[in-house]
Every structure is written in structure tokens, then in C-alpha cells.
Design brief:
The protein is mainly beta and 534 residues long. Helix content is 6%, strand content 54%.
Length: 534
């Protein structure tokens, strides 16, 4: 019988210790290895703006990128970059509250008119009290209106403010009292409060709180206190239609995806998980991705997969949560990602570094299938929407990046046009089809264009005037969510000018007793009311 010498016994014992340790952490070790070895897109360029400004929002343009944030001197900055990330132009300005104190901007979101909705705070009477603040600017940084949120006690914070699909503004807010109430609210196009709804009281603070306007016209609010995730679905008036809590999902962020379900990125013991739910929040599946440092955002990509921003970089998965590629670096805390038109990706880190990754498509792959990201699109007259083309190449579906080789057409350009980047613009009410073709492979989608709501309103449904005493007539033009005073641009006429007349300034003057009509026309619209002269 052979015997084992003591040195061999020691080696065997050590081996078993290592094996047992690996077995205990096998899923994390396996996923970490998978992440480290996965193919990553090439880095096209990398810039660091830490010593110049902090970035709150990135958006892509045809010529490069627009950034919004704050400078090191707390001024708001609007910065334009070229396609390689080099600074072309920066416009800086300060925002001050009604009490004269400087506003510190903490967030920015683009609006459909090319401007931005900015959110931040300013100190109140006591240095430890802060008042939330919102400012709507145009594309040049000129403030169109502002709003201050006065709360009774404590430190209040606006976590997110954005424009909804109706041209209103929705926000998620919290008051850091004890217990801390969190709420969602809605403003009209001029910043006037339409409603605010309290959702929950807890404490002491929330790492994440967000609000989203969904495709079905509802609002989704997501809140995580580091130990539990809550999701609320609100109707157009802010009433809760349903809510769901997830005690097992810690330090989580979530976003509604196509089909109405939710993608949730969460962290437990520093391990990142991706969870998918149905439209009512019921869990469908969960995937684990090993040890990271946090889950900062999750979004659905054009090919139906998911993009996760983590404490070490970005992870791209397919629609089932399987990893397709990752770009990971130590101390690379990603706070924002932007999918670019060429199929690449830009991500911004907490230390001010912006990195552009190239598209993952191989130029030599043969395209066998082409599709728009939706079978149908709906838009208003004058509205422009971006479309995304996906293609099957090399046996896998991905975003088509070589748009310069795609031939886009519209069956009826009087209804809708489509440009070389696949952006569609509605012109007149109706429906038609858009088409795309590359290498003989074709895709099509239906487009519906609806009339923009337009109306002409007078400030009274009936006027009563005294002979010889003029009164002002105010004419308001409504188009979509916007309204404007068009009194001086309108044309006036009365049914009987011997009873009453209106001058070019909109002054209604009674000449003799009687009753007649007043007709106002503007931009092809007409409004008529009764006029009584006494």
C-alpha cells in the first residue's frame, strides 16, 4: 500500500481549501471572469473635463455633442463638442433665486423646443435649509420661466425633472425630514403646478428617485432607499393605479421597457443583478453579473438588449440578459450613457471622463434581415422623431451603423419625410409608409401623422359694453401645449359696425344700443361672440 508523505498531505489540504473557496463564490467568480474576457468595443476617443466643468446631460447632434452642467465656479454651462469630443464653444451664466442667492444646478434635461429644463437648489434663511428650484431655458441659455419649491422644514431635493409627451413637466421630489416624504408632481408648460402627489414616507434619504412618462400615457415613479425598491404607476392626474415593492432588490434603478415591463438593475453584497418584470411588476427572470461596485442606470437598447452602467464600466446584454460585451476599468464609476447614431456608445464617469466606444458591428458581415425599431410611428404635424434600424448580420441582431449606405424613402412626402439618418418629420395629417433598403434587404414601417391641436379663444364668451366706453378684447392662440396672446396680430370685424367696432389694438367700442356679433380671425382660425351695447 502506498502512503502519502506529509508534504503531499499539505498540498492536498491546501488544494481542497482553494476548491471549497471557489465553490462558495463560484457564480461571482464565473461572471467576473466572463466580464473580464468578453469582447469590448474599441475606444475611439477619451476626454476629461474635470478641471473645466461638471456634466449633467449629454445629447448628440449632427455636428457633435451638446453638454449641460456647471463650471467649477458654479455657473451653468452650455458646451458644444465636435465629433471627436473637442470643445468648440462654451456659454456660461449664473442663476439667482428671488432672495438673491446663487442657485446650484444639479440636473438638466432637454426639451422638445431645443431648450433645457434645469433643476437645482439654493440656500434658504438657514445655511442647512435648501429650496428646490427649476428654470426653463431656450437653446441659448435664456431663462423663459423659473419656479421655486418652498417646503416647511428641512432639506428638499428635486431628483429628476423632465418634459413629458404632452409638453408638461414632471418631477420627483423628496424632503429630507424624518420621516422623509417623497412625491411626484406635474407642471404645465409655464411652470404652474397641475398636481403633486405624496407617495411614501420613509428615511433618512434615497440614493435613487426617478420619474418617467410611459408610452401608454401613464407615469412611472421608481424609488430605492438602498434596502428596498418601490415602483408606482400613476395616471394622468397623478392617482396611483398600482404599486409594488421589492424587499429583495437593494440599491436598485429601474426603467420601463418596450411592451410595458420593467428592467431593474440592483446590487446585493456588491454583486450586480438584472431583473425583468411584466407590465404589472411581476418578476420574469433575474441574471447575475458578479462583483461590481454599483448599478447606476439601466436602459433598453435598439436590439432589445440592455445596457447597464456600473461602478466599473458598462455591460451590454442581449434581450435575455446574457452578456454580449463589457467595457470595464478600475475606478470607472459610470453615471451616464448615450447610445450614438452610428451604433456606438458614449459614457461619462464621475471623475469627468467621457469615453466614446465604437460600434460593435463588423463591416464585412452580410446583412440578412433589416427592421425599424417599431412597426408603426405616430407623430404630430411639425414633429420630428428618430428611428433606429436593426439588422441581422453574422447571425445576430444589432443596431445598423452604416446609415450612409441605407436608402430611405417615404411613400408620400407630403405626409412625412425621412432623412439620411432615419429621422422622420410629420407634415400633414394622414398615414403612409417609410422604407429602408441596404444591399437588397428592405424594411418598412407605417407612420401616422395627426393634427396639432389648434384653437382661438377670446377672453369672454359674450361682451357687454356701454356706449362710448371701450373695453379690451384679448385673443389667445393655442397650439399643442403652447398658448400666446395674438390680439394685435388678429383681424376683427363686427356684424353691424353702426352698433360696435373694434380697432387694431383690440379695443371694443359701442356706438349705439343694440346687439351684434364680433368675429376674430388668426392663422386660418375664427372665433365669433355676441356683443351687447347698452
Amino acid at each position: 500500500m502506498k502512503s502519502i508523505v506529509p508534504a503531499a498531505k499539505s498540498r492536498i489540504a491546501i488544494t481542497w481549501i482553494v476548491v471549497c473557496a471557489l465553490m462558495l463564490c463560484w457564480p461571482s467568480a464565473l461572471h467576473a471572469s466572463t466580464l473580464a474576457e468578453s469582447d469590448s468595443p474599441a475606444v475611439e476617443w477619451e476626454r476629461n473635463y474635470r478641471n473645466q466643468f461638471k456634466v449633467s446631460h449629454i445629447s448628440e447632434t449632427e455636428r457633435g455633442y451638446n453638454l449641460v452642467g456647471v463650471t467649477n465656479q458654479r455657473a451653468v454651462h452650455f458646451t458644444r463638442l465636435d465629433l471627436s469630443g473637442q470643445i468648440e464653444q462654451t456659454h456660461s451664466f449664473y442663476l439667482t433665486a428671488d432672495n438673491g442667492k446663487l442657485v446650484t444646478i444639479t440636473g438638466a434635461s432637454p426639451t422638445r423646443d431645443g431648450g433645457y429644463i434645469l433643476s437645482g437648489t439654493y440656500p434658504d434663511f438657514y445655511y442647512f435649509d435648501f429650496v428646490p428650484y427649476i428654470a426653463k431655458t431656450n437653446a441659448d441659455g435664456e431663462v423663459e420661466w423659473s419656479k421655486e419649491f418652498t417646503k416647511d422644514v428641512g432639506y428638499s431635493r428635486l431628483y429628476e425633472v423632465k418634459e413629458d409627451l404632452q409638453g408638461h413637466y414632471i418631477y420627483a421630489i423628496a424632503n429630507w425630514a424624518d420621516p422623509m416624504p417623497i412625491a411626484a408632481g406635474k407642471l404645465d408648460s409655464q411652470g404652474r403646478t397641475l398636481w403633486e402627489r405624496a407617495l411614501k414616507k420613509t428615511g433618512p434619504m434615497f440614493p435613487t428617485l426617478s420619474i418617467q412618462h410611459t408610452e401608454n400615457g401613464l407615469y412611472t415613479v421608481v424609488a430605492s432607499d438602498g434596502n428596498k425598491l418601490d415602483i408606482w404607476n400613476l395616471d394622468d392626474a397623478g392617482n396611483t393605479t398600482w404599486s409594488k415593492g421589492y424587499d429583495e432588490l437593494r440599491s436598485a434603478v429601474a426603467v420601463q421597457i418596450q411592451g410595458g415591463g420593467y428592467a431593474i438593475a440592483s446590487v446585493d453584497n456588491r454583486e450586480v443583478f438584472l431583473t425583468l418584470t411584466d407590465p404589472f411588476g411581476n418578476r420574469q427572470w433575474t441574471q447575475s453579473y458578479g462583483l461590481q461596485l454599483g448599478a447606476n442606470s439601466v436602459e433598453q437598447t435598439a436590439d432589445g438588449g440592455y445596457l447597464l452602467a456600473t461602478g466599473r464600466g458598462v455591460i451590454k446584454t442581449d434581450r435575455n440578459g446574457a452578456i454580449q460585451w463589457s467595457h470595464l476599468k478600475d475606478q470607472n464609476w459610470v453615471i451616464q450613457t448615450v447610445q450614438t447614431r452610428d451604433g456606438g456608445l458614449i459614457y461619462l464617469t464621475e471623475n469627468g471622463t467621457m469615453t466614446k466606444l465604437s460600434a460593435t458591428q463588423s463591416p464585412g458581415d452580410t446583412i440578412t434581415e433589416l427592421a425599424f425599431d417599431s412597426d408603426s410611428y405616430s407623430l404630430l404635424e411639425g414633429q420630428t422623431l428618430d428611428t433606429v434600424l436593426t439588422a441581422v448580420y453574422g447571425g445576430e441582431r444589432g443596431v445598423l451603423t452604416k446609415l450612409n449606405e441605407v436608402h430611405f424613402t417615404s411613400d408620400d412626402e407630403s405626409i412625412v419625410t425621412i432623412d439620411s439618418q432615419g429621422s422622420i418629420t410629420g407634415h400633414n395629417k394622414g398615414s403612409t409608409h417609410i422604407r429602408a433598403e441596404i444591399d437588397g434587404v428592405k424594411a418598412e414601417a407605417e407612420v401616422y401623422v395627426f393634427n396639432t391641436y389648434k384653437a382661438l379663444h377670446l377672453d369672454s364668451s359674450e361682451y357687454s359694453v356701454t356706449v362710448g366706453e371701450p373695453i379690451d378684447v384679448v385673443v389667445t392662440y393655442l397650439e399643442g401645449a403652447n398658448h400666446s396672446n395674438v390680439t394685435r396680430e388678429s383681424a376683427f370685424s363686427t356684424g353691424d359696425p353702426s352698433i360696435a367696432i373694434v380697432d387694431a389694438e383690440g379695443n371694443l367700442l359701442g356706438l349705439k344700443r343694440g346687439q351684434t356679433t364680433l368675429t376674430v380671425t388668426y392663422n386660418g382660425l375664427e372665433a365669433t361672440v355676441i356683443v351687447d351695447v347698452y
